[in-house]
Amino acid sequence: MTSVDIDTVPHDRLSTNDMARLRELFDAEYFAEFGAWDPDQPYGYAPHDVHVIARLGAAVVGHVGWARRTIGVGTAEVVVAGVGGVLISPHARGQRAGTLLLAHAALSMKDAGGIEYGYLGCREEVVAFYESCGWRRISAVEHSIDRAGHPVMQAPGPPLLTLPLDPKPRSWPAGPIDLRGRAW
């Protein structure tokens, strides 16, 4: 594989070309099931403040989006980078592009300052990949707003993962998680 270039772009600085290439990446994967990608409400999930983009020449071959939010965990408040929109183009899979992309995303979260943890939910099939990149699985009740705008409670079980961003992180607090909005 030719060298993949990684860019970190704030949402409000995405170029028209970036938007078009990201739309191609997401629509190639999800259009049949979810329709067209909307960067301001991707498939009904929370939008991203920052986009970490993998490029192979002019093509966008990968993406990780994240947004800073203070969530409730038990009686504590935790500042997280809620991660979503993790996608690698089929022709870039299996060549470590995802690992490189997640490493750059973690650096961008750390560089943003004041964020304690990366936070994401995912499918069971990709948990091992995230764990290989340093993410840790947690188990908790999760409260959020669903894609239709209604409150929802998810019982423990489906994968939730965190990534400590502080060199000396406090332990992830015990208790139910309130995302205080849509998942990413």
UniProtKB/TrEMBL annotation:
Domain of life: Bacteria
The keyword Transferase is assigned to this record: yes
Enzyme Commission (EC) number: 2.3.1.-
Alphabetic keyword roster: Acyltransferase, Transferase
EC primary class: transferase
Descriptive protein name: GNAT family N-acetyltransferase
UniProt organism field: Microbacterium maritypicum (Microbacterium liquefaciens)
